[in-house]
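Continuing the batch. This is chain 6 of the set; chains 1 through 5 are on the previous pages. Same settings as before, nothing changed between runs. Recording input and output for traceability.
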Amino acid sequence: MFSNDRARRALWSLAFVGLTPAALLAATHPAVSPSIEPPAAADLDHAPPSLTAALRRTWQRSPAVQAAEAKLASTEARALAAAQPLYNPELDVTAQNADVNTRSIGVSQAIDWAGKRGARSDAATAATRAVRAEREQVRQRIALQWLSGFSAYRVASEQVDLGARRVALLGQFAALAQRRLAAGDIPPLERDLAELALQEAHAQQAGLLADQAKARQSFSAVSADDTHSLPELPPALPPAVAIPLAAAAVEALPALQLAAAEVVAADARIIVAERDRRPDPIISLTGGRVTNGPISDKVVGINVRIPLFVRNDYSAEVTAARATADEAAALLHDRRRQAVAEAEQAGTSYNALHEAWRRWQRSRVASVDERATLLQRVWEAGELSTADYLVQLKQNIDTELAACGLRARAWQAFADWLGASGDLDRWLDTDGSVR
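Output for chain 6:
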């Protein structure tokens, strides 16, 4: 089949290291310049519109996001309620028939002397900001779960397709081995090796299908779309990220925004507790008529009542509020340290996987079909045993499967980075709304 030893050696090199046909041409014709190393695909600066649209649908239909929206609406309503006047006036009507007949009507009003209404309104506003930050955190969590599950399912599907191709190639090889056995070209042992390899491929394919089903189940738990209508996973990865994360970016993280809002809300509740310790007077104005026989007189009265906080001065509530504020401040400090560490770890992991994927894209690796075809030619020429053929074909396909796994890990690491850096809305090119 081969005209000279140089062609045979070139084909052996192609079978072992997976060179492209262009490399084979360069080996058999030294005067020709070697091909230029292919560049890697350009990085993906922003999410494709189809991916962003799918995420928006997930936000709109997610029960977790809907619950967060309902909680925010409830908190906003409570903030409006807290801004209303604290006390309503009371109407008092008195009628008494005795030796002295009395008819009177009065109005009483408690006065918010200590400014409790303003303190409670400020506390409710701070609580609203905290719940809004919590809503953003829920949105981010759902988006990152979706993106991680989406990439895992898409890569699992690619591995299933590659596994099916392995079954098809080994099926063709087993059929060819059977024909060559019938022709007396190979011994029965080599035919048996081909059949065993085919059965192993079927078993491995069942495992890949199980992994795909598991990935589909995990993704369906957060996705609003059927897996058949999902967009394709972009062929390129987002660019490498800059670490360490800037201080302003750390403070803008949803988790830090939530912790900071909880600190403000806790401080506001201290003021509420302190204002609640101050009594509010109740002023009453009464007017009426008193009749005693033939004598009838008009009466006007003013009454002032002041509660005395003697048995309970409400100091324990203030102490509890201050302790809660100290807890919130400590948690904010702790979350800030965790955020910095998580961002550095996520960025380092993604950059390493990003570089590994770029190296794979730049490598001189032909497709599985090309390598299988060339290996089969060497085997048919008698230059390669059946066992060596199967070992090399398995290595080629395992390498492709490993590359798929690397791609999945890279996308999952990028999702971790989006969560750790707060860069989700920028990458999705959204304004933070679910619409």
